[in-house]
Amino acid sequence: MLGLSQANTRQIVSRARRRLSAERRAPVGTAEHRRLVEAFVAAARHGDVAALEDVLSADVVAYADGNGMRGAARLAIVGAERVARVTAFAGKFFPAADYAVAEANGRPGLRLVKDGVTVALVSVTVGADGVDGLYRVLAPGKLRAYERSAHRLTGRL
């Protein structure tokens, strides 16, 4: 149809993905990243949809990895309104959980702990417009591995 080889098409797609990713991510300092994560954690803790929408970028994308075990969303959730509603609702599954800022993928993120066990870990990416990506890990096996590695690195959780 277009007269392009497969290799050429792959290269075009690869370049497009890199450019889209680069456009989306304006550098944000560590202090600003942490401030936005703390605001996100506070809003999530209280199920405050309006406060969540304020801290989320308009085109935020949330992914969940429940490994098919916890009813995690199988598809990405896109948009501040939808992500805010899902995040606020998700808190109802963990009413007695402690919400805390924790390191996730080398950056400030969110850790939910219930009865001394991590039940969710959220890696948070931030851009100039606010929180632009949430990567939730809910799979128990992966969370146990996280706890073991966190314990090994710090000697405690």
UniProtKB/TrEMBL annotation:
<dbReference type="GO" id="GO:0016987">
    <property type="term" value="F:sigma factor activity"/>
</dbReference>
<dbReference type="InterPro" id="IPR052704">
    <property type="entry name" value="ECF_Sigma-70_Domain"/>
</dbReference>
<dbReference type="InterPro" id="IPR032710">
    <property type="entry name" value="NTF2-like_dom_sf"/>
</dbReference>
<protein>
    <submittedName>
        <fullName>Putative ECF family RNA polymerase sigma factor</fullName>
    </submittedName>
</protein>
